[in-house]
UniProtKB/TrEMBL annotation:
It is found in: Cytoplasm. It comes from the Bacteria. This is Glutamate 5-kinase. Substrate binds at residues 88, 175, 187. It comes from Arthrobacter hankyongi.
Amino acid sequence: MTMTTDAGRPGTAPDAVGTAQARDRASAKKPVRADRGLLRTAKRLVVKVGSSSLTSLAGGISEEALLALVDVLAERRNAGSELILVSSGAIAAGLAPLGLGRRPRDLATQQAAASVGQGLLMARYTQAFGAHGVTVSQVLLTAEDLMRRQQYANAYRALNRLLHLGVVPVVNENDTVATHEIRFGDNDRLAALVAHLVKADAMVLLSDVDAIYDRPPQAGGIRIPLVTGPADLAQANIGSSGKAGVGTGGMVTKVEAANIAAGSGIPALVTSTANAAAALAGEDVGTWFSINGSRRTPRLLWLAHLASIQGRLILDDGAVKAVRERHRSLLPAGITSVKGDFEPGDPVELADAEGQVIARGLVNFSSYELPRMLGRSTKELASSLGRQYEREVVHVDDLVVL
Ligand SMILES: Nc1ncnc2c1ncn2[C@@H]1O[C@H](COP(=O)(O)OP(=O)(O)O)[C@@H](O)[C@H]1O
Ligand SMILES: N[C@@H](CCC(=O)OP(=O)(O)O)C(=O)O
């Protein structure tokens, strides 16, 4: 995937988008509509809306955009579906009251703006959904809440109860207290983890662009209607936010989020807020990520997609086969070299001799201890270095094959 730093706004270039849609209809070979119909019938849905499509040109929250979205979501809720709305926009909503013209760069002012804006955002949602007879609630989460078992279970219990009570939980990252190191920043991956948490039937990511294109769409790209696995986007030029100073993750984090969901058994659609009604009706809009994996434990989900990798172990061919095909633990005998600086328990990558990463795992030894263990059997290590060296380098339960 190529990263770019484009600075246009495809949502404002309908002509290019329309032409691209016509072209992709003509050239698409795959059955685009595939399982999109699922969005029409999904009982439990996570819908994420980004700052780009909620924000007016002046930088604050657009009342018009918010009301139009709420109309669609409330109708769906009133038809019986359970809905979670993951909404960005707290920082944008906090700008005007603080006399700020644009999104602040420093973390402390972003935290302050989010603290001011979150309440205002919720007031608007409460009123707009209330007009349809729908009750909303505020749920602020940090990455930690979704990674630690006890907090995960706690968040699940609360959200599940809210859904059973007919409430639409409005989720955002707890920007005011989220620490810099593990802050999501964008809400795309947060939405994928929430979808996983509540075992949603599908996830919809709404933005200011109607689909993922083979390059940033203001350059007149071609819509990618269907993604069946990461390889389908290997040639695409996926870029950052086209609305500098408003949206955060751009298409990169939406692709990551959709891959997280689809890879753990939840199909995902990326489209525009303007297409929300069509999307929920199962129409052929946006980019559909069909399921390509099954549900993982939260810990392995984190390891596969979110953990920050501290080092790399290079495996010989036998170890690659053992890990990838026979689903075995990684033993010291199959490792040829070690890269990086890590401690026991840290996430590392496992790569083959050509450097292709085949798995991720939690390592049992530090980068300081490992070099003298390489290529040696666990029995030999136990007798020469002591019993504590008899264990696997990465246990199969702490390993995800990619
Ligand atoms: N290949 C691509 N296809 C579609 N959009 C792209 C692509 N590359 C970059 N983008 C940009 O990603 C933007 C959406 O991300 P972002 O602004 O972060 O939205 P949000 O605030 O809704 O999360 C689009 O406006 C578009 O300019
Ligand atoms: N939690 C932040 C979201 C930041 C943001 O811009 O996210 P996104 O629009 O999803 O790229 C907020 O509410 O302002």
